[in-house]
């Protein structure tokens, strides 16, 4: 017999884990089933070695505040990203207090966020950015320096053997974080399964079909033996990374028309050499190369995974037609439909710099990649660094009424008109803003239940419905409270 449930979650990453946790806290009696096609959760983009682990709060990422010609720098996007990350911090803090999450150090650690630039033009830009951001309450404590002695105290590896006379500058926010989204997803799913939620690993969803009664028939099979089965759900969330597009296309909802995705893989240089790791505790971002997508901004990062510290530098773009690291070589072709072919072709024509950038990245050997690292760390030696493969990022391509096909960076929720199904497309800042993304989904897809949920949402997220950056006292109170609970005091 076909099993009937309230909610189906497709994909075992941080997005499904976050939505499942929110729904379980709000409606503990609902029956929730989660499907993951691999043998464990958090093995794709949520895996700590498949992403940079940056708690994206726009503290160091320049692409959230780009220079637009001669116009004054606008902090609106940076402030918005920071506001969203604060909601995630509050949610995680509440879950720590409730015993849902383990000791905070198992998934989040204080790590200063820095930006480092070279050349007169970028130095001038960084200083202008600092002057704007230091006035924003959520960026309180940001520091700026062009003094090598000061920057050396922040991140010594940046300054050793640096060429004299070279213009450079850095900003630093001591209150940054490093987040292990894999550990976080595992802990959330552990709590859900202990609370009665069903998690089926090694199970792949094959089709989604809307029924006359408004429910969804979800057909799936066991990855081992290919035994088929099905379940009927009142609501379906597709949090399957790049495969979300394929499943949403399979569902037949008209809202997915015009969408496509462009897969970009990545590699990082990694070192665990204790002498090197001990000299760098920060996430240091810089300007992206010409044509590079925002997610390819070079950065030298402290990582803390399973209690062990290491350094990563990258990312270096790679290309694979797969939408997931464990995807199919036919993914990029199988997505093509009559409604998205033209927008995708227009994206290809409009982004020659991206193609040039990708080709240049693919031609780099190990030494060339370490050469790129040496712009950050002049003393880097080839033998200290090894290459690791990161996850696949599926950048959104979609139809725009005015511009035709556009390549969109960031994340986007696509939902049906009746709110019975929704999926997430895109990449960074993704995981860091999972909580506000899922809050938006709840409001869109559960309009009748949402008002009754608001008191509990305020209990989980104390400043729910408020803006922190317009209230300096509230911003300080909130950030101090979550820092204390999560053990991330600067």
Automatic annotation (TrEMBL):
Which EC numbers characterise this protein's activity in its record?
A: 1.1.5.4
Q: Which reaction is recorded as catalysed by this protein?
A: (S)-malate + a quinone = a quinol + oxaloacetate
Alphabetically sorted, this entry's keywords are:
FAD, Flavoprotein, Oxidoreductase, Tricarboxylic acid cycle
Xref: Pfam families: Mqo
Report a single Gene Ontology molecular function.
Answer: L-malate dehydrogenase (quinone) activity
The pathway that the record names for this protein is: Carbohydrate metabolism; tricarboxylic acid cycle; oxaloacetate from (S)-malate (quinone route): step 1/1
Cofactor field: FAD
Family under the similarity heading? Belongs to the MQO family.
Q: Which NCBIfam families match?
A: mal_quin_oxido (TIGR01320), PRK05257.1-1 (NF003603), PRK05257.1-4 (NF003605), PRK05257.2-1 (NF003606), PRK05257.3-1 (NF003610), PRK05257.3-2 (NF003611), PRK13339.1 (NF009875)
HAMAP family with a match to the protein in the record: MQO
Q: What is this protein called?
A: Probable malate:quinone oxidoreductase
Gene name, per UniProt, is mqo
């Amino acid at each position: 017999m076909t099993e009937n449930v309230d909610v189906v979650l497709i994909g075992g990453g941080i997005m499904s884990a976050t939505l499942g946790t929110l729904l379980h806290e709000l409606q503990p009696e609902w029956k929730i089933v989660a499907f993951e096609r691999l043998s464990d959760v958090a093995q794709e983009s949520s895996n700590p070695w498949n992403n940079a682990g940056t708690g994206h709060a726009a503290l160091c990422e320049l692409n959230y505040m780009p220079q637009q010609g001669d116009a004054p720098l606008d902090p609106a996007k940076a402030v918005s990203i920071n506001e969203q990350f604060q909601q995630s911090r509050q949610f995680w803090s509440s879950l720590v207090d409730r015993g849902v999450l383990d000791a905070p150090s198992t998934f989040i650690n204080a790590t200063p966020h820095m930006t480092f630039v070279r050349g007169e033009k970028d130095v001038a830009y960084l200083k202008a950015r600092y002057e704007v951001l230091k006035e924003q309450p959520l960026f309180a404590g940001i520091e700026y320096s062009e003094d090598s002695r000061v920057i050396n105290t922040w991140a010594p590896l940046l300054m050793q053997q640096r060429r004299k006379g070279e213009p450079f500058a850095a900003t630093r926010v001591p209150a940054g974080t490093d987040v292990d989204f894999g550990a976080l997803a595992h802990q959330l799913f552990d709590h859900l399964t202990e609370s009665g939620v069903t998690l089926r690993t090694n199970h792949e969803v094959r089709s989604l079909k809307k029924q006359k009664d408004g429910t969804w028939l979800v057909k799936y099979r066991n990855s081992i033996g290919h035994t088929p089965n099905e379940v009927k759900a009142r609501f379906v969330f597709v949090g399957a990374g790049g495969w979300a597009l394929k499943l949403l296309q399979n569902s037949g909802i008209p809202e997915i028309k015009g969408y496509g995705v462009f897969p970009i893989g990545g590699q990082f240089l990694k070192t665990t050499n204790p002498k090197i790791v001990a000299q760098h505790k920060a996430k240091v971002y810089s300007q992206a190369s010409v044509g590079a997508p925002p997610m390819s901004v070079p950065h030298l990062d402290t990582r803390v995974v399973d209690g062990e510290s290491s350094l990563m530098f990258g990312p270096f773009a790679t290309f694979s037609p797969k939408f997931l690291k464990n995807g199919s070589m036919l993914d990029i072709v199988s997505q093509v439909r009559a409604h998205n072919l033209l927008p995708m072709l227009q994206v290809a024509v409009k982004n020659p710099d991206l193609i040039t950038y990708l080709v240049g990245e693919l031609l780099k050997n190990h030494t060339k990649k370490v050469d790129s690292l040496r712009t950050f760390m002049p003393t880097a030696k080839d033998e200290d660094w090894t290459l690791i493969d990161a996850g696949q990022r599926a950048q959104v391509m979609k139809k725009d009424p005015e511009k035709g096909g556009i390549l969109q960076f960031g994340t986007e929720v696509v939902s049906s008109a009746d709110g019975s199904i929704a999926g997430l497309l895109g990449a960074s800042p993704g995981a860091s803003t999972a909580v506000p993304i899922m809050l938006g989904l709840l409001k869109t897809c559960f309009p009748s239940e949402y008002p009754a949920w608001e008191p509990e949402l305020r209990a989980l997220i104390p400043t729910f419905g408020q803006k922190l950056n317009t209230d300096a006292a509230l911003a300080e109170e909130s950030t101090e409270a979550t820092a204390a609970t999560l053990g991330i005091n600067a």
